[in-house]
Amino acid sequence: MMLLADIGNTRMKWSLWEGGVHTRTGAVAHEPALFARNLDAQWRGIAAPERVLVSNVVGTKIADALYDWVQKRWQLHTEFAHAQKQGHGVTNSYVRADRLGVDRWLGMIAARRILPDTAVCVIDCGTAITADVFDAGGQHRGGLITPGLVTMCSALTRDTSGIGGLQQDLTAPEVWLATDTQAGVLAGTRLTAAAFVDRVLTDAQRNLNAPVSGVITGGDAPVLLPLLRGTLRHEPYLVLDGLAVFGSTS
């Protein structure tokens, strides 16, 4: 059994990986003052795993706290994944391979495992929305980054007069044309993000001159899926799947 953890910008998602499947999943808010207590609450009854593998994009503070917790509770050394120049069927296009976010790298190698010998656009919808495209041979062609839904709403709240106090309820029903400011911001940010995803997929197919499959993940993926023109495969645990691939050969 492996314990897999994806430390994102606002929370840490985790799963237990046994027999090629996620047998248990969860998420932990990672405010530094409460992080160890939150781990106690979620992992108290878990037997010591064989390995703990982590994707981390938020620096060392939370990663160090996780490392210490695992060391004290299970006497294990936590293993941190990193982006590589080449591996698992994907070639990284970044000149400095380590500058590609490890979550994006893991998402691509997971998508490559799910859809082998296929050109793929991987969309991850979190604090930021990232898009990465690789061709049928696994060559990463590059990617794009744009603000996520909550980030866009927060920017309007902070920087625009008259929209202060906006409640960022991204589960609110979708509207076409809004009749109040809050609904207008929520609908506008959703459509902005959906248009970005649609355009990336269209451009990927045009530039590769080949069919491109779309894979979408991240906490806001369910909000965007109904608004997209194309059909994307929803893989909610894509980064954790990539960690499992990474761990199988490391």
Q: In sequence order, what are the helices and strands, one letter per element? A: EEEHEHEEEHEEEHHEHEH
Rounded mean pLDDT score: 91
Structural category: alpha/beta
Arrangement of strands in the largest sheet: 3-2-1-4-5
Number of beta strands: 12
Largest sheet: 5 strands, mixed
Describe the global form: globular
C-alpha termini separation:
15 Å
**CATH homologous superfamily of the domain at 117-149 and 181-236 - what is it?**
ATPase, nucleotide binding domain
CATH architecture of the domain at 117-149 and 181-236: 2-Layer Sandwich
Cα-atom radius of gyration: 19 Å
Q: In terms of quaternary structure, what is this?
A: single chain
Instruction: Output the number of helix runs.
Output: 7
CATH class of the domain at 117-149 and 181-236: Alpha Beta
pLDDT < 50 runs, ≥5 residues: none
Q: Assign the CATH topology of the domain at 117-149 and 181-236.
A: Nucleotidyltransferase, domain 5
Strand content: 25-35%
Helix proportion: 25-40%
